[in-house]
Automatic annotation (TrEMBL):
Keywords: Kinase, Membrane, Phosphoprotein, Transferase, Transmembrane, Transmembrane helix, Two-component regulatory system. The chain crosses the membrane at residues 76-96, 224-247. The keyword Phosphoprotein applies. It is an enzyme of class 2 (transferase). Residues 1-64 are annotated as: Disordered. Gene3D superfamilies: 1.10.287.130, Histidine kinase-like ATPase, C-terminal domain. One of its GO terms (cellular component) is plasma membrane. It comes from Caballeronia arationis. GO terms for molecular function: phosphorelay sensor kinase activity. This is histidine kinase. CDD domains: HATPase, HisKA. Residues 308-530 form the Histidine kinase domain. Residues 248-300 form the HAMP domain. It catalyses: ATP + protein L-histidine = ADP + protein N-phospho-L-histidine.
Length: 536
């Protein structure tokens, strides 16, 4: 329930101002190197004298910088290249071995067939009839050592080398089929071609094996690898250089765009030439041109605002002057008293108007000079309500405040948020009839806990739906409405809400007491922030 203003307990608050740092004088060193620093000091002083000059890229900056686009693209191009290069070497080695094995395996297979044809059955026993020419053919190799072996049906040695390794029993091929395997003999790696020969009226076949060492194969594989891999040691550095050069050429338009922007005067808001930009950065140039257009419009709005503000200030100031002159001319004390009261009213109006003009100017210039920090919204709203208790009591109004049981924090500028809430309460007091009720409320959204609502509701005449889009414009007032407002309050609220990335909604607040009036509910929605330990 809303707490009445009479029971509100005022709390003194100390306003703390963060001192702004003043630039320290740079004293040149009094030593022999003083002459060498004159140019750099002069350049730095010149930059401080012109705050609109573009930043000096040579000045150190302690803030962390994101990686350059050039470096990111270079990494993503070179990293796969350097990763695939050793993989290509491994694949080349395997392919080279396969290529080297092909012709030598075919020759070894032919030797196995020749040897198998020399086996003849004699009384049910295998006999190897190997002519000298055939034996010389099998042994004729100037590089590798050649071995052969023939085992009979009972495993006896029929001919050849006794110590050749045997294949597994389940690995013996069918008669007439030659298979290959890698094995060891006398400490050397060998390649073995083996087959079986079937004899008539014998259950077990004869095993025939021919083997050779791998010297020729290794030499051929190495030659292939050298012919393929060695050129890569030249191609890879050239590829890196070409990638570097290509990226430099590709990013040249960005450097040209940067130079063009840095060379501009601060008051030059003409659009960039988007037609000369590559398609990849054309959207960036178009967005920048749109920003320049909006900035130019904003500057025009500022100029128009100054003119409007000056125009609005003429009336109360002129009234103040007229009443002062009138008071000086009157001799009757009652008339003087009445004039002095009018002077006080006009002075208050003028002061309030000037305050609102300054607040609006600060809110509209939200891109510069605004310091954001964590703001405890419930405390801020409570203090703002206390500031307006006397103004509400003077019109016999009941002003109350409602808040959640837990603190609610937002990210924002405490001065601007306080000004926003003060304008909402001021509007509610001005346009609510005497005896009305005003409630200020801070609450969290029931569906989205990351959203907090700041609401000001009153029992006034309300704002028609057709006027709600226009009442947030500067100096706009609804025709036929009484009140001494200037039409700036909701405009200030809108600018401050926009500055904080929030949303503003104006709705009816229908209540049941007579007379049944629409009332007004103004809701400001902001993003909530949490302490690290309290985030759900």
């Amino acid at each position: 329930m809303a707490s009445p203003a009479s029971t509100e307990r005022a709390a003194d608050s100390a306003q703390r101002e963060t001192p702004s740092g003043t630039p320290q004088d740079a004293h040149a060193p009094r030593n022999a190197a003083e002459a060498a620093t004159v140019d750099s000091d002069a350049s730095r002083d010149a930059r401080y004298a012109n705050p609109f000059a573009p930043p000096d890229e040579l000045e150190p900056d302690d803030a962390p910088h994101p990686r350059s686009l050039f470096g990111e693209i270079l990494d993503w191009m070179l990293a796969p290249l350097l990763l695939l290069w050793p993989m290509s070497i491994a694949v080349t080695y395997l392919v080279a071995k396969s290529i080297a094995n092909g012709p030598f395996d075919r020759a070894l297979e032919a030797d196995a067939y020749v040897l198998a044809r020399q086996i003849q059955p004699v009384n049910g026993v295998a006999e190897l009839r190997l002519p000298d020419a055939t034996r010389d053919f099998l042994r004729a190799d100037n590089v590798d050592s050649v071995f052969f072996q023939v085992l009979g049906t009972r495993g006896e040695l029929v001919g050849g080398d006794r110590d050749m390794p045997l294949p597994r029993e389940d690995d013996r091929p069918q008669p007439g089929i030659v298979e290959f395997r890698d094995d060891m003999l006398r400490g050397n790696d060998i390649r073995v071609a083996y087959t079986t020969v079937e004899l008539p009226n014998v259950d077990e076949p004869v095993l025939v094996q021919v083997a050779e060492t791998l010297d020729k194969r290794s030499q051929l594989a190495n030659d292939i690898i050298k012919g393929v891999i060695l050129p890569q040691f030249v191609i890879l550095p050239l590829a890196i250089i070409l990638v570097w050069f290509g990226l430099s050429r590709g990013l040249a338009p960005l450097h040209a765009l940067q130079s063009n922007i840095r060379a501009r005067r601060p008051d030059d808001l003409s659009p960039l030439e988007a037609g000369q930009a590559p398609p990849e950065i054309a959207p960036l140039v178009a967005s920048f041109n749109d920003l320049l257009t909006r900035l130019e419009q904003n500057m025009e709005f500022q100029k128009r605002f100054i003119a409007d503000a000056a125009h609005q200030m003429k009336t109360p100031l002129a009234g103040l002057r007229t009443q002062a002159e009138l008071a000086l001319r009157q001799d009757v004390s009652a008339e003087v008293q009445r004039s002095l009261e009018q002077i006080a009213t006009s002075s208050e109006h003028a002061a309030r108007l000037v305050t609102q003009l300054l607040a609006l100017a600060r809110a509209e210039n939200r891109a510069t000079g605004q310091i954001f920090s964590r703001v405890e919204l419930t405390d801020l709203a409570r203090l703002a309500v206390r500031d307006w208790v006397q103004a509400a009591l003077s019109k016999q109004m009941d002003i109350g405040y409602e808040e959640p049981p837990h603190p609610v924090e937002v990210e924002g500028n405490v001065v601007m948020l306080r000004e926003m809430l003060s304008n909402l309460i001021d509007n509610a007091i001005r346009y609510t009839p005497p005896g009305g009720r005003i409630t200020v409320r801070v609450r969290t959204d029931e569906k989205n806990l990351d959203l907090v609502h700041l609401e000001v509701e009153d029992t006034g005449l309300g704002i028609p739906a057709a006027e709600r889009q226009r009442v947030v414009e500067r100096f706009y007032r609804i025709l036929g409405r009484e009140g001494d407002g200037s039409g700036l309050g909701l405009a200030i609220v809108r600018e401050i809400v926009t500055m904080h990335g929030g949303s503003l909604a104006i709705e009816d607040h229908v209540y049941q007491e007579a007379p049944r009036l629409a009332g007004t509910l103004v809701r400001v929605s902001l993003q909530r922030v949490y302490p690290a330990r309290d985030k759900p």
